[in-house]
Write a structure and sequence with these properties.
alpha+beta
Length: 136
């Protein structure tokens, strides 16, 4: 009797269906938690490129760039750390024509999988450019 129940194939299709549905739900849940990271990375790239372009046009890292950074953080909802590397004209925040500048934008994002844990990762975007302003 027990031997016949073990050999019986009835109900096997239901178990396969349940396993497939549970696996699909786990994949969808993982995607829901991972895809926003790519969106944040894209937004960081945009912020870095626009800040660098603003600094290129103005030839300095001053109020215009700060205002642009505030506008971009309001638009994107991000609060990134922004750092600059540039060869300034001594005593000023001005960058001479054709001198290189680099902006680094950093944001920490948590990709925790619901109640299973928290996994913060640091996203970094860089943009390089050259000053387009000649300072006398």
């Amino acid at each position: 009797m027990l031997k016949n129940l073990i050999k019986s194939k009835r109900g096997e299709g239901y178990i396969d269906t349940v396993v497939i549905v549970i696996s699909a739900m786990l994949v969808i849940a993982l995607a829901v938690k991972i895809f926003p990271v790519f969106i944040v990375k894209n937004q960081l790239n945009t912020v870095a490129n626009e800040l660098c372009r603003e600094a290129q046009i103005t030839g300095r890292i001053g109020t215009e760039v700060t205002k642009k950074a505030q506008d971009l953080t309001e638009q994107t909802g991000l609060n990134p750390d922004i750092s600059w590397e540039a060869a300034y004209i001594s005593g000023t925040n001005k960058i001479q024509l054709n001198n290189e500048m680099t902006v680094t934008v950093t944001q920490t994002v948590d990709i925790g999988f619901f109640s299973f844990g928290s996994f913060p990762i640091e996203l970094t975007s860089k943009a390089k450019g050259r000053s387009e302003v000649y300072w006398k």
